[in-house]
Each structure stands twice: as structure tokens, then as C-alpha cells.
Write a structure and sequence with these properties.
The chain is of the alpha/beta class and 311 residues long. It has one domain: 3-Layer(aba) Sandwich (Rossmann fold), CATH 3.40.50.1820. It contains 10 helices and 8 strands. Helix 3 crosses helix 10 and helix 4 packs across helix 5. The model has no long low-confidence stretch (mean pLDDT 97).
């Protein structure tokens, strides 16, 4: 299927971004932030949204707590934004956190983990794991149910979510009951085949951009063997929580995203994997107006509600 007609029209009216490695880092971050915060939020009503710091391994981690309308205690989902581990913050994917909070009827703890290159691998994962442990310990204080915990993320955030459930399994706690992964790849480096060749030049995300982000993030190639960077490479995937994986058809890392699904399924994990036709990397950020993004949000929320419904 070709690029979604609405996206095609949208891109036609905008100047094309050059390769991301050509931007000074501060300009790249500002450009991503500016384009993101101009997007309208989804038309949902929440009970409250508040910022608070969480304790982390290298100091405080900024976080934002979204609470749905209704009577709790609610499930609690810890959410990690995308941005290649290099860009993004609490504002750039605020629209995703709002949509997930309302649609999944869950408290969302959105985490502003440390970014590269200032903070190399595994800093983002260490912050993510600390945030999950905090959420598990303080769920009741937030109006949540500590017995109904999930994780979610888009792109790089999806990798963090996938890795953290492996860390939770390794540690024996907390019990996580659902994973939502919007287009976070299960393996790095991305294999140079299939979608990586077909969509090497985008639209939107290029393979060179993917390489650039990981050059900024990792210390050396040995980091790719760590399951936090490549969840597929974990020694075992048995007993992981049910996982929802969403991929975009016109995305160079689509195949690396989808490749994690059979690995989980073969280990006996319940997996729901969906490819969204005509969509590009990052498409869920357009949840306020793009039908494909709205479908991916609705599917993820339905999945979360099924697995976080409680006893």
C-alpha cells in the first residue's frame, strides 16, 4: 500500500527535513520540540495532569502524572517517549500520554529519562527501570492499583518498555501485566534488509537517521549485545507479560519492530502485532487528527484494558 493520502498531502506542504546528523544537536532538539508542541492534543478530558520529580540513579528524573476521570483505583502505566534516545521530552509526546490515559482509563507516569550523547547507554534504561520501581511502590499514593501495572513507549521508548519487563522478570518484581510498544525495534543494529532497504530514504525517518541516533547513544558496538538495547537477544523471553506491538508500513525499521513478535510468541508470551497501512515512523503523535494514529491508539488502549482490568 502506498503512503497514506492524508500524510502525503501533509508532507507535500512542508519543507523536507535533511539528514538529522546535519543539524547541530541543540537545533535538532529545538526543531523536534517546536514541531511537536504545535500539534493539537487529542480531544479528551482528564481529571488532572501534574509534574513531579522521581528519584533516579543519577539524580531526579522529571515526570508527568496523568489521571483519568472516574473513580479509582486505576491501573498505572509507565510511559517512555520516543526520540532515538537523543531528542524528546515530556512535552513532545504529551498527546500520546493524554490519549493513553483517557483511552486505557489508566494513570500514566510519563518519564523524561536522560538523553544521549550527554548520557550514553544504558542511562535511559536505568532511569526507566527506576521509574517503574517508583511507580510500583507509589501506585496507591497516586490513586492507582499496584496490582495492575503496565509499561508503554513509542520508538526508543518502546525499546525501554520492552527492556524493562525483562529487567522486572530478572529482578522478580514488580509484576507487570501489559506492554505497549509502538514501533520500538527489538534488535539493534537494524538488519540491512527488507523495510530497511525499501524505506531507507523515508518518508520522515531515514536509515541514516537511525544510525546517527545509535552512534550518539552507544559507547561501542558491544552495547548491541545487551538485551536492553536488543531485547531479542535476552537469554529467555518466557513468562513475560502480554505485549502489543504496532508497526508502521512505510517505516525503515518496520521489520525490526515486527521481528520481536515471533520471538515472544515462541516463548509462550501472548502477543498482538499490528501493521498500520500507509503509516510512517512516529505516526501515533498525530493521534488528534490522523485516523491511522487513532486506530493504533484505540487498539493499544483496548489491549491495556483487557490485561489491566483487575480481578
Amino acid at each position: 500500500m502506498p503512503l497514506d493520502t492524508q500524510l502525503k498531502a501533509m508532507f507535500a506542504g512542508q519543507p523536507e527535513w535533511g539528514p538529522m546528523r546535519n543539524f547541530p544537536l541543540d537545533q535538532l532538539r529545538q526543531a523536534v520540540r517546536s514541531s511537536s508542541i504545535q500539534l493539537p492534543p487529542p480531544a479528551v478530558t482528564l481529571a488532572s495532569v501534574s509534574d513531579r520529580p522521581l528519584p533516579g540513579p543519577a539524580g531526579e528524573i522529571p515526570a508527568r502524572i496523568y489521571t483519568p476521570e472516574g473513580s479509582g483505583p486505576f491501573p498505572v502505566i509507565v510511559y517512555f517517549h520516543g526520540g532515538g534516545f537523543v531528542v524528546g521530552d515530556l512535552d513532545t509526546q504529551d498527546m500520546i500520554a493524554r490519549g493513553l490515559c483517557a483511552g486505557a482509563e489508566s494513570i500514566i507516569v510519563s518519564v523524561d529519562y536522560r538523553l544521549a550523547p550527554e548520557h550514553k547507554f544504558p542511562a535511559a534504561f536505568e532511569d526507566g527501570w527506576a521509574a517503574i520501581q517508583w511507580a510500583a511502590a507509589h501506585a496507591a499514593d497516586l490513586g492507582g492499583d499496584p496490582a495492575r501495572l503496565g509499561v508503554a513507549g513509542d520508538s526508543a521508548g518502546g525499546v525501554i518498555a520492552s527492556a524493562c519487563v525483562l529487567l522486572a522478570k530478572q529482578a522478580g518484581a514488580p509484576k507487570l501485566s501489559a506492554v505497549i510498544n509502538w514501533y520500538g525495534p527489538g534488535i539493534h543494529p537494524i538488519p540491512e534488509q527488507g523495510s530497511a532497504i525499501e524505506f531507507a530514504n523515508g518518508p520522515l525517518l531515514r536509515m541514516d537517521d537511525v544510525h546517527f541516533f545509535w552512534e550518539m547513544f552507544i559507547k561501542d558496538a558491544s552495547d548491541y549485545e545487551d538485551f536492553r538495547a536488543s531485547p531479542i537477544k535476552a537469554a529467555s523471553h518466557a513468562d513475560l507479560p502480554p505485549t502489543f506491538i504496532a508497526s508502521a508500513e512505510c517505516d525503515p525499521i518496520r521489520d525490526a519492530v515486527e521481528a520481536y513478535a515471533p520471538v515472544l510468541s515462541n516463548a509462550g508470551v501472548e502477543v498482538e502485532v499490528k501493521r498500520y497501512p500507509g503509516m510512517v515512523h512516529g505516526f501515533v503523535s498525530w493521534v488528534s487528527f490522523l485516523p491511522g494514529a487513532q486506530a493504533a491508539m484505540a487498539d493499544a488502549c483496548a489491549f491495556a484494558k483487557r490485561h489491566l482490568k483487575g480481578r
